[in-house]
Amino acid sequence: MASDFTAEQLSGQLTAHILLADDEPRLLNMLAHLLREAGYQVTEAQGGKEACDLVLKQAFDLALLDLRMPEIDGFDTMAHIARVQPDCGVVVVSGESSFSAVSRALRHGALDYLRKPYDPDELLTTVARVLKKRSLLRAHEQIQQRLEKSEALHRYIVNNSPDIVFMLDADGRFCFINRKVEGLLGYDPSELCGEHFRHLIDDRDFAWDKYSLADPHISADNPKTLELRLKARGGRRATRHFEVTAFPIDPQSWPHADDAQTNLSSKSARYYGTARDVTERKEAAEFINYQAYHDLLTRLPNRTLFQDRLDLAITHARRDGTRLAVMFLDLDRFKVINDTLGHGMGDRLLQAVAHRLEQCLRKGDTLSRFGGDEFTLLLPSIHDEEDVRGIARKLIDAMRAPFQLGDHEVFVGISIGISIYPDVGSSIAQLIQSADIAMYHVKASGKDGYRFYKADMSIDATSRLQMERDLRLALKRNELKVFYQPQVCSKSNQIVGFEALVRWQHPKRGLLYPGEFLPLAEETRLISQLSERVLDQAFQDAGRWIRGGHPDLRLAVNLSPVQVEHPRFVETLLEKVKTHDFPTRNLEIEITENAIMSDLDQISEKLRELAATGIRIAIDDFGTGYSSLNYLHKLPIHTLKVDQSFVKAIRSGEDGACIVNAIVAMAHGLKLEIIAEGVETGEQLSYLRRLGCHQVQGFYYGPARPPAKITRSLGDTRTRAEAI
Predict the structure, then answer these.
(1) Residue 486 shares a structural domain with residue 618
(2) In this predicted model, what pLDDT tens digit does every residue of 694-710 receive, in sequence order?
(3) What CATH number is attached to the domain comprising 241?
(4) Within 10 A of 699 (CB to CB), how many other CB atoms are there?
(5) What is the pLDDT of residues 597-606, one digit of tens each?
(6) Measured over all CA atoms, what is the biggest interatomic distance in the chain, rounded to whole angstroms?
(7) Distances in Å between the alpha carbon of 483 and those of 509, 511, 531?
(8) Domain for residue 141, yes or no?
(9) Are residues 357 and 418 in the same domain?
(10) Which residues 6+ apart lie within 8 Å of 149 measured at CB?
């Protein structure tokens, strides 16, 4: 582990000159103030063009850039900086959050990527880390250059050498050592003369004397060079690392008489050498090596180190005929906490989880952070599955207690998949993949538990792959159909609109409902293509009904978080509306609370743009997510849709009815329309009418139907729900 910076290095880091480039003056001034308060020298640029001009005139240690800037955007600015000042690091601070933008920025040389709105502490930490890393690398390069230039060692003693220069007699005792030893290790040269060289060597490197002086092959042309730890006098200083080079000399070339001024003893010098302090280089190399094999957030081994240790454990288990276990651990509810409280709190939670998990381990076990909120655990030398069960239960129990994050008390669970060597395979990939598959079976069955991998789990995984292939073919073969469920006025019983619902006419499995394939579509990113097909068909059908004598008929369509988060979401949707000549006042888009809260500021802006065109906004499955008044009054929301799970609970004395009462009352207070989903009985309908729920939909009025049946059923603008 690397030691802290010297005072000189820290001073250089705090006085670093930072260039800020953003086309939003308010954000630019806030960021500049934050960095100046932290002690940095800051120069501001109003956009990419001014930043490029400044780079030609001044030298900067670091540049913080926005991506969306007029004239010259962030990518071109990065390229300009790379050409003009290649030593200037770049960190992107942008509201652009798409994967392609992040990936492109990193490929252009960005050292980190922060999304607006940024957390001030996270930003300052990132800036300090980037500057520190670059300073370490520069220090490492400087030390390396120094070592390379110093390979030709002096043949004879130089009193003013920057290194410790010494001579040894035939027995290995010092007969000369220069005064550099006093500055580095605290010894007076006179007290070392006559002492054996072992007196300075750290106990961990004590075996050195078995090699160098007894080696018959060393000579002036073939010196012995080793890296050793040398002890400081009296423990007043820390042990330091030295590169020691020693080789024999001709006894005739060195005087035998004592010389007090040069600390010579009366014995003949037979060996001479130098000891160069390489502590900084060693620590820099160790730090870089640590970064390569550890997760810097949790200080746990990373994926690379875990796989190395697993490979070694498999080798030992194969040789000794023993067994080992691999666990794949995934946190439950982490994303909700991360999205709600922010990434800074999410990082603190990961650190706390890692610390708590480590307390459950045996000596010799290896816990690693595999990525995101996923961890892997290697358990070598197990006797049977009961050993593993005990550890799995211990890990799950350790997560039961709440985590305190500032003023927030949060709970997370953990899902664990387990594979056993050699039962499920003998390779690293097989063991990790099998544990991963078992973990997903835990997730599917309710989370917060553990399962051992079994062969039939791979069959399920294969089925998912087949399902994905079928879904891709379905998009090509137009097997996806759009059905429509009426939305009915609870007072007049008249149909006011239809919700478009996708169905899949599978060639072998028949008609599939959304719950059977939409999660897979989201996971595989096929949801965008699927949603485009649904929108095209829905606009065609509903547009035909509107133009056919139902001008007030409303079309409600569900949009996935993937669509809403896309940078061109607004443009894409409006282009489709224009292509189909669909009236915006007849369109209502339904999005979930979680989709909104994933990036409240960005989503808010998009929804305002859509609302300005006349499109209505509805919150789907309201009550199952954040249900926060904070965003309800900020956004142009027109409708709340009560989740069907609450409607189903409308019976005497059930909690679900109380939740419905609260949601309807809140909607009335905010002057929002309210639609209750999943209405199946007359009792539910009557209850909702008494509450003042504006509209309802559900099987009480029949299931969703294909467009042909809707067309036949629509008579006139006063069509009543019983006709469907």
Answers:
(1) yes
(2) 899 998 888 899 999 99
(3) 3.30.450.20
(4) 13
(5) 656 777 888 8
(6) 123
(7) 18, 11, 14
(8) yes
(9) yes
(10) none
For 25, the token pair is: 């003056």
Size of the chain, expressed as the number of residues it contains:
724
Domain of 685, in residue numbers:
466-712
593 sits in the region (left: phi over 0; alpha: psi -120 to 50; else beta) called alpha
Evaluate whether residue 246 is within a structural domain.
yes
Examine the domain organization and report whether 205 and 116 are in the same domain.
no
AA letter at 627: S
616 plus 577 within the same structural domain: yes
pTM over 0.85: no
pLDDT confidence of residue 377: 95
Model confidence at 316, pLDDT cuts 50, 70, 90, reads very high
Q: Give the domain-ending residue among 453, 484, 511.
A: 453
Alpha carbon distance 417, 328 (integer Å): 5
For residue range 107-145, list pLDDT tens digits in order. 888 888 888 888 889 889 999 988 888 888 777 777 776
Let me know if residue 718 belongs to a domain.
no
Lowest mean pLDDT, pick from 51-55, 209-213, 531-535:
209-213
Can you say whether the dihedral through the CA atoms of 647, 648, 653, 656 is positive or negative? negative
**What SS3 class is residue 409?**
strand
Beta pairing, strands 224-230 & 174-177: unpaired
Asked if residues 562 and 527 have their Cβ atoms less than 8 Å apart, the reply is yes
Taking Cα atoms as reference points, which of 645, 137, 598 lies closest to residue 338?
Answer: 598
In a domain, 109, yes or no: yes
Q: Hey, what are 566's tokens?
A: 């896309």
- Cβ-contact 176, 264 below 8 angstroms: yes
**Coil, strand or helix: which one is 246?**
strand
Neighbours of 50 (CB within 10 A): 19
Does residue 491 register a pLDDT over 50?
yes
Give the N- to C-terminal CA distance of the chain in Å, as an integer.
72
CATH number reported for the structural domain that contains residue 573 in this entry: 3.20.20.450
Same domain, 446 and 310: yes
How many domains in the chain?
A: 4
Tell me the C-alpha distance between 312 and 155, whole Å.
45
Which of 500, 572, 502 lies closest to 543 in space, CA to CA?
Answer: 500
Regarding whether 326 and 244 lie in a shared domain, the answer is no
**Same domain? 80 vs 39:** yes
Of 423, 453, 483, at which residue does a domain stop?
453
For residue 208, the model assigns a pLDDT of 56
- Can you read off the two tokens belonging to residue 21? 């480039």
Verify that 313 and 267 share a domain, yes or no: no
- Residue found by looking up tokens 């619902």 in the block: 501
Contact (Cβ atoms closer than 8 angstroms) between residue 598 and residue 565: yes
In this prediction, residue 720 carries a pLDDT of: 58
Question: Exposed/middle/buried for 477, CB within 10 Å: 0-12, 13-18, 19+?
Answer: exposed
- Residue 410 CA to residue 314 CA, distance in Å, equals 38
